[in-house]
Protein: 2-dehydro-3-deoxyphosphooctonate aldolase
Amino acid sequence: MSFNNLYESSRSGPFILAGPCVIENREISLKTASTLAKIADNLGLTLVFKSSFDKANRTSVTSFRGPGMDDGLSILAEVKKETGLPIVTDIHHPEQAARVAEVADVLQIPAFLCRQTDLLVAAAKTGAVINIKKGQFLAPWDMKNAVNKVRASGNEQVWLTERGATFGYNNLVVDMRAISEMKKFDVPVVFDATHSVQLPGGQGSSSGGQREYVPVLASAAVAAGADGVFMETHPDPENAMCDGPNSLPLDKVEALLIRLKAIWEINNE
Structure:
């Protein structure tokens, strides 16, 4: 799927970004992606496979970050070839943008870096779709500046992702009004259903999470007008190497997507 086709598809119908938080190995990546591809095909939903080659903002210096760019992109390229799914992955430095865009259809800007001008400009210049996660520290209307940085660099293909706001004491809160506010910028808005239930630093040297609330918040966000839903999923979240407590078990994804699709259809009646 080309950049333009993917972006146009996201403007005309619901879409999903899903996959393990971080690339752990080839086997888990391919297993998860192939399962997600079958579910998406059965439901007629556009799905973008998500996994990170490097998680640069882990709570602890000893936390697993991923395989790195070389090995990570190799695995993502194999996933893309084997499943036909488009790919989204994070970048953290401007110099990563062009290289990552050779494999990824969507470059994701992490929430903590959403104001970094050089990163946004470098990502925009690749021509890829740019998914900017709203910083936990920003009001939704402040994201207009991030959108404008991408557009001023010649790229109109922007998604914004709501992932909750800092509430303090290892918790986040979601204001569903943010979806309507960010849609005013004429961009598709995504709801991050799994990071929104994260408890940052909640386990001392790692983050906790309340995955039981993923279906609740995802359903509310779609009802509130979200164009897409982001969710991290893993075949065995209890033993995942990153964000396990807030990841949705892979065997729970299909039921949730059936529910979300029904809400999207009601919205479009």
Residues 233 and 248 are 5 Å apart (CA to CA). Residues 26-43 form the longest helix (18 residues).
